Structure prediction request, 772 residues.
Amino acid sequence: MADNIYNKIYSSSRTVFLEEIGEKLKSILKDKIEYIRRAGLDLLILVSKNNLYQVIKELKDNPDFKVNSFQSIAALTNGKKIYLIINLKSFDNDFSVLLKIEISQREIEGDYREIIEMLAKFYRAVKFYKHSGRLISDRCDIKILPRSIEGLDCFDLDILVDNDLIREAYVSIEIARIIGDDYYKDLKLYNLIAYISRFDWKAGIFPEVCLCEALEELLQLKVTERAQHIRMLLCELYRISNHIYFISNICNILQHDIAYNLSLLERERVLRIIESITGSRIVPNFIRIGGVKKDISEEIMVSIRKSLPVLFRNIRRIEKIMTGDFLLIERLRGAGIISKEIALEYGVSGPNLRASGIRHDLRKVKDSFLYKDLSFTIPVGKSGDCLDRISVRFNEMLQSLRIINQIINKFPEGDFIKKINVSHPEFKSSEISYGIECPHGLFKIYLEADKNNINSLLVKGPSFNSLILSEEILAGNKIEDVDLILASLDISPGEIISS
Amino acid sequence: MSFLIKSNFNILVTGFGCCKQEIFATQCSLYDIQRFGVNFVSVPEDADILVVQGFYNKKGIIRILNIYDRMKNPKGIIAVGSCVLNENLFNPGSELVSQFRNRVIINMHIPGCPPRPEAFIYAILKFLGISMQ
Amino acid sequence: MLRLIKNFFIVFGNIFRKPHTIIYPRERIIIPDGSRGVLHLKVDPDSLEIICKGCGLCKIICSQGCITVQKRAEDKGREVLDEFCLDLSKCIFCGNCVEFCKMNAIDMSYKYQLAEFDKKNLKLEKTELVKPSGTIRDFW
Prediction:
């Protein structure tokens, strides 16, 4: 009893909430599950394959849980055993569940079709996995191969049309399946950190931050305030660079040359600050377990302080140019509308979700970073069309500049890294799932470790959900808007190769 | 490579990878690669040079060879990044890339992971035969 | 009318503005401090000898296996670097070798002008790695 009260006062409300839900689940599904425990952000439930149907039915239909959104499904190997990890989320109650199922090698080769058929009864989004692998190329009307625009280059698109309206669209990611089974097995931790930023090359810092924070939570290590501030600074800088690259992509498709050139110039300006801090433009390799690689000097601070107003002015200028152009606005308005319900059901996160009118940002929800000390607002759209998605990102950039301004004004003194023995770490717990708000949405890592090394690692980027959603929202739009709608979802190819 | 000097020079970028954004960053007005008569095109028949970068699986390699066959002579290949020069970063065991390297003649190698936009322009200038000094 | 005057001043200002473009053969971009380029073997400024003793730690650290190091024993039991080869086509410029080097014998130069017609030229030997890359900011 006393323990319970103590938790409620001193721990974050979310932790208690998750544990309460876990206990409720345990009492209801007593004999159907093997164990249930908390792993980082999520509840991890080990289920046998036979009981899976009943467990999901209970989770979906019970009003106490209401797990209504499908996030991801992926296979992972730990030693000789193969597991399937299904991630489901409840937006009403704000918690997410990982279902872990042991399956055989034969089922993996058959793309675990049995389980997917069963999941498709509950969640619409799963139908992507149902048809993937055997596309309808022979009876489709138009086949669109990968284009040279960034983000649209990692999948094929098959379209069935009625005159010039799209009836159905099918996405195939066959050419993006390039990842080997165990690329991370032979790697040491420092090499894994150097590698992992390729999973999201539009904003390379976020996979690193996510991995390092997950490992820090396994090691139960607390990072100094200065290191956290440096991390936050880099995260916001990369968020700006990603969003402005997104704007340039949209302008490239619409052939709007003025905004295209101006936005690429601003991107160079941001990347220059990033390079002076980390030493590389795209793949920083800067975050370390327990801190960051090197300190930020006073010179760089001065240069950031100087370029902030310039950035602010120029981004506002680009926004003004784009919103002042009525041709552009008419083209963007009403294209590719995502409604609230569909966005939630397909597990979309990040700016795409916010553009359809749901105020959800992990920076405000989670309290591992020091975002709670800073004041910023979360921009929200209304209708969820392309115009909203662009304006949300513009506003987010301005908010990021505001955050950076606050960070550099109260930069704390102290150490930037806690020295630990990286080659022989000792992990306290065995499995963890960790998430971070990256520019495209919720970037997630699930890893299992024994005492000294990582056994299995799953990386799940948010772009994959956006890609699944694109099948749904392309229907009913015109053919000439295909590129625009797909680009406005801000798909990062690096996240698609990982899943 | 004297045929390419002082001529319009069309480039087709294939694949997906980190190097792509750095290659397209050369279009921006800070670097402005169009000064040298270099254009980025999206149809293989128009292209003089194929830029190969990023990750490929079996299907991707077949597609690239297909694109290369459709290009008109004279044609060349620029390989960008360590994924093409060495091996796939996330699938080290696969020999697809080395098979690809044996099938075609690669005219220019740009190391880096990813190389900076400047390195790409340097390679193009070397191709065009414009002196560096 | 007011708008016309406003536009006039914008155009007038842009006539005298410096262009954003960096005209390559004449101008050079100065890349920021600490940017990661090709490896550079440091030389002791007093004795003009290579600091690296060839312990081979960087070879173990490197995930791509792009460094080959060999040492040889000279008289009086002193160990000298015999061979140091960097394969640029494999290097991913992560900078871990510099971070882990105990002797502090290597650093990353600013050299980025890398493109070769022949892949064999991308293998850099000791003599080329010792060379400071022109000025320290040999870049454009």
